[in-house]
């Protein structure tokens, strides 16, 4: 099985990077919707439209993309486990990936609060949290490609 996966390694890596791009696109866009939603009066047409956009973005793009990023990344880890577990950059990368997944979880919880009209945080709060995945994404890509340590 590992031999077969090894012979398709570059295809798996390409699918991994495609899934990661979709995941990051959603992680950078969703908090931007929260910035506008925090300023929209509850019960208005704008607020109800943003609820639909947030739900569909999370359920049909961000969640599946994260799952595929883990599946294809996990397959590559499995193929070269001993090598990657000896690499400092992979440890640093996976630590940031765990933090990215935690931020994903926070975004999902905040979406439910908006859906129930329970948000009390200002737009500025979401503008700051919009930067978290950006900074982590930059560091992860540098670790994955430059392999600095
Ligand atoms: C979700 C869990 C993840 C796992 C288990 C994972 C694991 C891996 C592994 C094992 C590789 C192959 C490295 C190699 O062959 O040199 C890889 C490549 C890569 N990963 Fe991930 N990764 C994950 C998430 C991410 C995220 C969130 C990003 C970006 C934000 C990312 C960006 C990349 C890039 C750009 C490459 C290609 C590096 C190259 O061409 O050498 N990965 N990943």
Helix content: over 70%
Number of helices: 7
The N- to C-terminal Cα distance equals 30 Å
Strand content: under 5%
Bound small molecules, by name, code or SMILES, are:
protoporphyrin IX containing FE
- Provide the residue-averaged pLDDT: 97
Structure report:
With about 150 residues, the chain is mainly α. The protein has one domain (about 1-145). It is built from 7 helices and no strands. The protein has helices at about 1-5, 10-40, 45-80, 80-85, 90-115, 125-130, 130-145. Helix 2 packs antiparallel against helix 3, helix 2 (about 10-40) packs parallel to helix 5 (about 90-115) and helix 3 (about 45-80) packs antiparallel against helix 5. The relative contact order is 0.16. Protoporphyrin IX containing FE (HEM) binds near residues 16, 17, 73, 137 and 145.
Chain-wise SSE layout:
Layout lengths: L1 H6 L1 H31 L5 H35 L1 H4 L3 H28 L7 H7 L1 H16 L3
This protein binds protoporphyrin IX containing FE.
Descriptors for this entry?
149 residues; mainly alpha; 7 helices; 0% strand; elongated; binds protoporphyrin IX containing FE
Question: Short description, anyone?
Answer:
The protein is mainly α and 149 residues long. It has helices at residues 2-7, 9-39, 45-79, 81-84, 88-115, 123-129, 131-146. Bound molecules: protoporphyrin IX containing FE.
């Amino acid at each position: 099985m590992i031999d077969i996966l090894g012979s398709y390694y570059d295809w798996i890596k390409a699918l991994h990077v495609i899934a990661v791009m979709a995941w990051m696109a959603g992680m950078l866009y969703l908090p931007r919707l929260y910035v506008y939603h925090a300023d929209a009066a509850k019960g208005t047409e704008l607020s109800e439209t943003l609820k639909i956009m947030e739900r569909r973005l999370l359920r049909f793009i961000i969640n599946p993309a994260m799952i595929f990023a883990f599946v294809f990344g996990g397959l590559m880890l499995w193929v070269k486990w001993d090598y990657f577990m000896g690499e400092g950059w992979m440890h640093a990368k996976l630590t940031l990936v765990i933090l990215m997944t935690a931020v994903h979880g926070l975004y999902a919880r905040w979406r439910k609060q908006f859906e129930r009209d329970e948000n009390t945080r200002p737009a500025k709060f979401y503008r700051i949290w919009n930067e978290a995945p950006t900074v982590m994404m930059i560091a992860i890509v540098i670790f994955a490609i430059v392999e600095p340590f």
